[in-house]
Specification:
The protein is α/β, with parallel strands linked by helices and 403 residues long. The chain is 37% helix and 18% strand.
Amino acid sequence: MTLLLGIVGKPSSGKSTFLNASCLTNAEMSELPFTTIKPNKGVASVRSKCVCKEFNLKDNPKNSLCIDGIRLIPINILDVAGLVPDAHKGKGLGNQFLNDLSRADILIHIVDATGSLDKAGQRISTGVQDPYEDILFLEEEINLWFKNILEREDWNKFTRAFSRVQKDFINALTDRLSGLKITTYQIKLALKESKLENKNPSDWSDEDIFLYSKILRELAKPIIIVANKIDKESSMDNLDNIIKKYKKKIIPCSALAEYLLRKYDKDKIIRYIPGSKDFEILDPSKLHSKELETLDKIKKRILDQFEGTGVQKVFEHAIFDVLEQICVYPVSDINKFSDNNENILPDVFLVRKGTKLIDFVRDKIHSELADHFIHGIDAKTKKRLGENYELSHNDIIKIVSAK
């Protein structure tokens, strides 16, 4: 199943800029609220140290890129319309916004760290709005959206069929929430963490339903906070304040700086690898004095101070830390680390930590290959692997089948 990262935030916070910086797309960017109406899609990349360096190989990837030993692995991004208070009731573009997020695995909340946008995304004086309040209101809206879907209009009728929390209720709840990409395991875990597993669902209070919805949302669609526009002077003071109040990981970011660097790199004016702490100017003659000044500010105020623009840190934290993904390289030749066409380390796939070999074969390679599976081979150690072998990060695997 392909991972999808949803970009959320109130209007004008920089969501479309973040998308364009990540994917080199051309989504319209503006300080006017609701510039984004229809969701914008893109393909970004997450960085991982490639195994080619471990074996001193010159690889030629097919489903990804490798630059100086850094493997850039594709991930899907969705930028949706800005969220305003009471979006879960349909205010603004609320219904469309929330429905667009139903298939996302994780949400990237782009917060305007300058504090210069009110809750509706309208421009106000810098520092008037507390960015921490933006975090609270968005999480509340997402949680209430989950609650609305959970209840629908027939919650009492739905729960009346179950005398207590049991297998039938969990299965029915799984079906009810299937459109949100929620697993049975997450439903069970949310029952346990909310301490509702032994309470009759028909006796759940409104507070019980909200608590369960909140915990389930945190499990199924975790939110990463990104403090955008960090290059602005007011943002630094606000960042310290947000960190003290929120007490969870917050990633400082300048999506605009990343976008400029990526564009200059694409035009071969500079050399820049996404996520790097530096860049190289290849052709200064193509830059006028203002552009050189801008690049110097990006270097000193952002790259040097924050060790990057923050965009790749968002993806790495989302994919590897929160979603617990690992990289696996399938090959056909365990000595050359190549496929049947002599492509060295051609593909890399993201899978959840703990995934078994047989599930990897079925989900990522081919179901027919899984049906005729005999064993796998660890290309690094040349050891045979059974179908229940748990894959590790940067495994290089050959699959042996009867067909």
